[in-house]
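Q: Mind making up any chain with structure tokens?
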Amino acid sequence: MIIIIGRIISYLPLRIPKMCYNTAKKGLLPMMPELEVVTLDEIQNEIANELGVMLYFSGIHCNVCHALRPKVKALFDEHFPEIKQRYIDAENSPEVAAHYNVFAVPTMIVFMDRREFAREGRAVSLVQLREKLQRPYGMMTE
């Protein structure tokens, strides 16, 4: 936005949030991925009862988390559909984050057969993660 006052030109940055259409709430909302606030019991029950669980710890103010999340979701939807995906707000679920020793976001923890199988944080290589999970996932789903 340019404001002209006399002969002085002032440039004011406009901060317009990105908008997306949210079908659940019927309208335009600021683009922000939905993060879950969960309890430790919920997560432990899922890990005990599911073939596999991927916990993606994120934060509302984490730009890397927002950029990485769609890529992680696409990877798991395409290559590992039997692994349940949980996107957890680490700021509002501190008990869960502390239990799994998550001190930075984004952190991704993959559980298979009730055990922690993979942990990735900060700089995540999705290619390496896929390669690491392919063989054990294939053996578990056969």
Summary: Residues 33-141 form a domain with the Glutaredoxin fold (CATH 3.40.30.10). The beta strands are 2-5, 8-11, 19-22, 27-30, 52-58, 83-89, 107-112, 115-121. The CA atoms of residues 83 and 109 lie 12 Å apart.
